[in-house]
Design a protein that fits this description.
CATH architecture: Alpha Horseshoe
Number of strands: 0
Number of domains: 1
Distance between the termini: 57 Å
Number of helices: 9
Shape: globular
Order of helices and strands: HHHHHHHHH
Helix content: 55-70%
Low-confidence stretches: 1-10, 159-172
Mean pLDDT: 84
CATH class: Mainly Alpha
């Protein structure tokens, strides 16, 4: 590797680390600056945990940062190494407002991780039963096309660990 490419790699790693620190802190202004200068950072991933920037923002309840990341192109279904999505992480942390926003924005509430858990079971398992009920209703009310897509993909992905992109929903989710 040439000195210039080593410098670029180190600079990129440092920028990602600084960006993820801003996301973790909920620094909306800093996150906005990073995304303006380098929109690709919306896809940044923490190497030690496999958490995406969107997972970090969701689990910490930084809803404005979640919105910024989605607007910049972050994958709403981008899961960690165990298959937990940003929606599942928000539910595990009891971040109801953020979880509702993610479901309304297109995150599939019925998706299962590698352990077979859904957003609803994540919320209930973390002792947030009312959030679990909301996510159960969200999964039931999401369009059939989205449900079929993820059911098909779950069968195809079994064992290979691949994450597939999700189609954008046209109809809003109802939590009633």
């Amino acid at each position: 590797m040439s000195p210039k490419s080593e410098f670029n790699a180190a600079t990129t790693a440092a920028a990602e680390a600084s960006f993820l620190a801003a996301v973790r802190a909920g620094g909306e202004v800093r996150v906005a600056r990073f995304l303006k200068d380098a929109p690709a950072l919306a896809s940044a991933r923490e190497m030690s945990t496999g958490w995406t920037a969107l997972i970090i923002a969701a689990k910490n309840g930084h809803e404005t940062v979640v919105k910024q990341l989605l607007k910049a192109g972050a994958d709403i279904e981008g899961a960690d190494s165990a298959g937990f999505t940003p929606l599942m992480h928000a539910c595990l942390a009891g971040q109801g407002s953020t979880a509702r926003y993610l479901a309304e924005a297109g995150a599939y509430a019925g998706r299962r991780n590698r352990m077979g858990m859904t957003a609803a079971s994540c919320a209930r398992g973390a002792d947030f039963p009312s959030l679990g009920d909301e996510m159960e209703r969200a999964a039931q009310n999401q369009p059939d096309a989205l449900k079929k897509y993820w059911q098909r993909e779950a069968g195809e992905m079994a064992g290979n660990g691949l994450q597939k992109p999700v189609a954008v929903r046209k109809k809003p989710v109802s939590f009633k």
